[in-house]
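Slide 14.
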Amino acid sequence: MTRTSMGKALNTALRDALREDPAVHVLGEDVGALGGVFRVTDGLAAEFGENRCADTPLAESGILGSAVGMAMYGLRPVVEMQFDAFAYPAFEQLVSHVARMRNRTRGRLPLPLTIRIPYGGAIGGVEHHSDSSEAYYMHTPGLQVVTPATVADAYGLLRAAIACDDPVVFLEPKSLYWSKADWSEDRPGEVPPPGRAVVRREGRSATLLTYGPALPMCLEAADAALADGRELEVVDLRSLVPFDDETVCASVRKTGRAIVVHEAAGFGGAGAEIAARVTERCFHRLEAPVLRVTGLDIPYPPPMLESHHLPNADRILDAVERLQWSDEPAGRTGERGRHAVDA
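Slide 15: predicted structure.
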């Protein structure tokens, strides 16, 4: 095993897919000679040629529209949108055509298309470079939405997305591109099953439900919570659509408390849907309301202010303290309960 970055694991997944299936094509802005702005496609054009790893004009709607046609004619295009907020000009193609094609043709025409979108903040990026746009895609029926948080999942989930016959929005956490783990491209491990979450840390006091760039801060908070006698279970959702109610609810029913953590703004975000699903399915086992720790409800701020905008381990621990604990005075617990959604 060698220390490998998430970016390298994604690069290996693309290379292996291109080698194994001539129908796979990679396209996007600067994915060819440059190797992508985050170098995820580095070396692919040199190895497979510019027809298999193609630079495109700076027109996201055109990139995705071209990929729709490629997929309709039997290819498996993998599109890179370069940055999260750069993908918005392609949103009409995504909603009007990509998500509807199988339903429109009554199942006769699948659309094996993977849309790679680097997303999230904590990289010092300026406006349009740090959005967390997952809720838009989650709310669009016909799309699968997945996001890795580990090096091994970056490889396995991308291979699964490319092999899928339905369109997959593959959200890549920019802040984790340079994170490293013991992983070998010669032994990449099993491809995760579709739509399955995983428990990254066992606990009994409360459940942290998270995904993508928020996983490291949740694990950090779980380590720190031990000092206060709180054993936090951390669940990495991995797949936002389809959603793994079974794993999530099993954890929440065990701990009786849940906090959803993500970088995106809280109002109308992924955490709202997750909290609703947990409440509907686990209501009689909950000891406290489901809380959320999220980004602020503002447009993404300038780099010097993003540390105030993004959630962190301290804010997660503050939310843990605001949960209703039976060993605390009732008045104190009630006061915290009134502010549960302001994490």
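Speaker note: DSSP finds 13 helices and 14 strands in the chain.
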